[in-house]
User: What shape does this take?
Amino acid sequence: MNAELSPADIAVDAAETPAVEMQISGDLARRGVIASPLIVGAATVVWGLDGLASGAFALALVLANFVLAALMVSSAARISPPAVMVAALGGFVIRLGIIMIAVLLVRDQQWISLQALGAVIIVAHLGLLLWELNHVSISFAHSGIRSTHP
Amino acid sequence: MEAFSILAQLTDEGAKAAEAAGSAGFAYGLAAIGPGIGIGYLVGKSVEAMARQPEAAGMVRTTMFLGIAFTEALALIGFVVFILIGL
Assistant: This one.
């Protein structure tokens, strides 16, 4: 352990680190837009026009969730490491609440298909994360190599 | 007698709906506990790692953010079960 560093030094170091969360969420949003025709198209094929609308809504929810998480954590990281803890756990609760309210607001609409909504939320969330993880793993393993894939 | 049977049927349907809503809420609550513990542990260890090696904060935060998102997927699965059963 580096005993010469005070908590204030650690906070300064953390503040100097670039907002990697925003970079990751930007990548996720870009990949979400690239994959949206495939995801929404698959939902349309399975659930029809309701699947199209519900799939687009679910994809927007997932991307907004990523961006909101990144905003919270990167903002907190500029303050102090304990603030990251608060932002991560508090943000988890807040974002789950926002998703729940968003779904409760649209659940009675005629265009909503709950099966399509649920399926796209899970598939898009995990799919985009695995895609980003692949990119990040390559960057960590070979820091000089930048993946040419989107 | 017919009115009683209709009333009994309505009550039965209402009880089933209440049971479904209760089960869904219970499932969602259980599904949110695990990720809550997981995220707390993950971020705690990440903060510890950043305190030990501030120069590696960028890499730690990248891994931490992806870990948070993967852990949160468990809660989202619970939420989807909730909307499919309870709504």
In short: Chain B has a mean pLDDT of 85. Residues 13 and 32 of chain B are 29 Å apart (CA to CA).
